[in-house]
Amino acid sequence: MTNEELWVQYKEYNSKEAKDALIIEYVELVKIIAGRLYTSYNAHVEFDDLLSYGIIGLIDALEKFDHKKNIKFETYANIRIRGAIIDQIRHMDWIPRSTRQKYKRIEEAVARLQKKFGNDFTDEQIADELGLTLEAFSKLLGEATTYSVVSLEEKIEDSLNFDIASNVVDIQPEDRFVENEMKKILSQTIEQLPEKEMRVMQLYYYSELTYKEIAEILEISESRVSQIHTKAISKLKIALNDLY
């Protein structure tokens, strides 16, 4: 039975067998998304837990997807699966308050330097702004890197709190404007980053490489990739904050 036939059997005839077959068909997508988020969260959660949360998102996507609309299920499911995993991680609240506060300090320092220098400033300047040695700042970046990823994910999820994929025709003009503006700002901000930060963001988000793979390409350590990523994320989050 083809994929299209499975959708018809499930949606129009409520076939449990077709639904089970669709879950099996798309479970690999859940594994890919869960694996990527597992890397982002620095192994603070179990991969199997992320996979379970993602399966919940996949089932939700299957139930709510309109197979008659002109949109790929993979696009819709990606949003639902990521959203389900991130929601569960939020509820776990496993990131210490001290880590959140440390990242907030970095973000505030970056915001102040952006007003002075745009997006082009050094680690040394951020360390000076924080009143830290370069070594202490590098350690701080390492501690805050996990929360930086979570923070950006949450900001994007909150910004797109309308159903992008299932209601393409029904999206209100103001919601469409926010979506387009957010994409434009993210794209522009990434393009304005210093070359190494831009390269890390492109390799991580567009090429979907791991820190280890990026480190090999750029010939730097994984910890350095993590630090560069954290700095770049703080700039993106500040740009998104300015939209609201």
From TrEMBL:
PROSITE patterns linked: SIGMA70_1 (PS00715), SIGMA70_2 (PS00716)
The answer, when asked if Cytoplasm is one of the entry's keywords, is no
InterPro entries to which the protein is assigned, alphabetical:
RNA_pol_sigma-70_dom (IPR014284), RNA_pol_sigma70 (IPR000943), RNA_pol_sigma70_r2 (IPR007627), RNA_pol_sigma70_r3 (IPR007624), RNA_pol_sigma70_r4 (IPR007630), RNA_pol_sigma_FliA_WhiG (IPR012845), RNA_pol_sigma_r2 (IPR013325), RNA_pol_sigma_r3/r4-like (IPR013324)
User: RNA polymerase sigma-70 domain spans which residues?
Assistant: 49-62, 210-236
Q: Does the keyword Transcription regulation apply?
A: yes
Key words of the record? Cell projection, Cilium, DNA-binding, Flagellum, Sigma factor, Transcription, Transcription regulation
| Pfam families per record | Sigma70_r2 (PF04542), Sigma70_r3 (PF04539), Sigma70_r4 (PF04545)
Q: Which SUPFAM superfamilies has this protein been placed in?
A: Sigma2 domain of RNA polymerase sigma factors, Sigma3 and sigma4 domains of RNA polymerase sigma factors
**What is this protein's function?**
Sigma factors are initiation factors that promote the attachment of RNA polymerase to specific initiation sites and are then released.
Q: Which family does it belong to?
A: Belongs to the sigma-70 factor family.
Q: What is this protein called?
A: RNA polymerase sigma factor
